[in-house]
Structures are given as C-alpha cells and as structure tokens.
Amino acid sequence: xxxxxxEILYTEDEIxxxxxxxxRQITADYADKRLLLVSILKGSFIFAADLIRHIELDLAVDFxxxxxxxxxxxxxxxxxxxxxxxxxxxxYDILLVEDIVDSGLTLNxxxxxxxxxxxxxxxxxxxxxxxxxxxxxVECKYVGFVCPDAFVVGYGLDYAERYRYLPYIGVLDPKVxx
Length: 178
Hints:
There is one protein chain. This protein is of the alpha/beta class. It has four helices and nine strands. It has a six-stranded mixed beta sheet with strand order 4-3-2-5-6-7. A three-stranded antiparallel beta sheet has the order 1-9-8. The longest helix is centred in the N-terminal third of the chain and has 18 residues, at 12-29.
C-alpha cells in the first residue's frame, strides 16, 4: 500500500469484478442501439478502457474534458469544457463514463449540454458514487460502488495529478492535501 493511503476501499480484483458486471449489463441494454461511450477526462480513462473490454458490442468512443476541481479537493461549482466531442450525435445513444460522482454539478452540466445536441439518449456509468447529498442529484444507470465520503485516489482518480496509477482505490491521508 502507498504510504499516503490510509485505507484501501476497493481492491484491484473488486474493481475488475464490478466492471465486468457493468459491462455485461451494458451489452444487454444496448444490444440493438448505436452506442457512443464518452469518457470524461481525465479521471475516467482507466475505467473507460477496462469497461470497453467488457462490452461485447461495436461501439464508438470519444472523450470530453471538463474542469471544475483544479488542484483542490472540492469542486469549484464552475464547469468548463476543455475538450469537446467530435462529430454529430443525433444517431447515437450516449453513455457518459465518469470516475466518481460527488456534488453532481459536473454530470448535470454535461448531461444537459449533451441532450442539447439531440442524441437518442444520454445515460451515465459511474465507477463510484459518494455517500453524500448531491448538490444537484444525478441518476446513474450503472454504478460500480457506493463510496464513503472521503477523498479517494487510485485507478484513475487523482489529487493534483498524482496517484492515478494505483491499481486500487484508497483513501488519501488528509495530511497530503491540508
């Protein structure tokens, strides 16, 4: 375990099992649809890559990058699109792939934005949903884990661009960011 981690919440095997289960469900749910999987950068890229390997469908992939945290531990509440999607969306069912749902602000912003581009549907797959009252509630169709209200890193989640490489998800020691 990394010395800055106080507790491992989800092991590499637990994460792999959750993603496999989500992938099977997505395969069933989107069997007759034209799926566009949209990974929200940067945190969800590892989750998205592993998830794609468990979806047994032809699908398109794109990436969208937003900023709302910077090097802070809480969202600023202001969402900016840094990298937008490519091409028209009207013929797709979109599945937004997110690493963690906390305040709900970013996902609600993105869902409204994407719906304004007239896809067939917009749903969300989140690896983690925090056990907190969201400022703007978000309905996720697929969830890997319900996570305690702690600052977590690993498996793509970071603090100031660190810890993404960890193969597990753990609680970051508050001494690191306080």
